[in-house]
Design goal:
Layout (H helix, E strand, L loop, with lengths): L31 E3 L6 E6 L3 E2 L8 E6 L3 E3 L2 E4 L4 E11 L4 E11 L3 E4 L3 E6 L22 E5 L5 E2 L4 E5 L1
Parallel strand pairs: 1-9
Antiparallel strand pairs: 2-4, 2-13, 3-12, 4-7, 5-6, 7-8, 8-9, 8-11, 10-13
Length: 167
Amino acid sequence: MRFSACHEFTGESTLKFGDDDEAGAPPAAAKQELKLPKNAEIVLRLVGEIDTDKAAVGDPVRAALTSDIKEKGQVLLHKGVEFSGRIIRLEHYENFTVLGLMFQEAESETAHVKLNLNMDRAMGADVLASSRWGVNPNSPPRPHEGLVPLRPGHLRLSRGVVMFWRN
């Protein structure tokens, strides 16, 4: 029996009874639900690295917006806003590795956005596979899944990798 691919999951909880210092605090302001313009190009930069030897499907992924998203001259989301996503595919083949990412939401101090993005491409890392690798996963991308083709083996996709998405 091998346990080399096991992951440890932890949690934390706090139990509070009515005598809370925050009880008199005003409620937090509700965040505005935004819709991004159709076909808006969204350029994200990976915030943390992804190590394909340690990563697993379901792991969280964060990326930051590289420029403001505007509609009719008004800024909807500012540069630097973080987008939250998950790894939804990690497949190792003889000639390549496929990393599937999906970003579900973005949140700033004042706004929240549910996302339905489609990836155009990724660039900026020496571990990305070129077309000469003949990357062809066994199953096509799921709706709103971005496939990142990587060279074969276990790799580290470093922070700073740029991904181009469309809404």
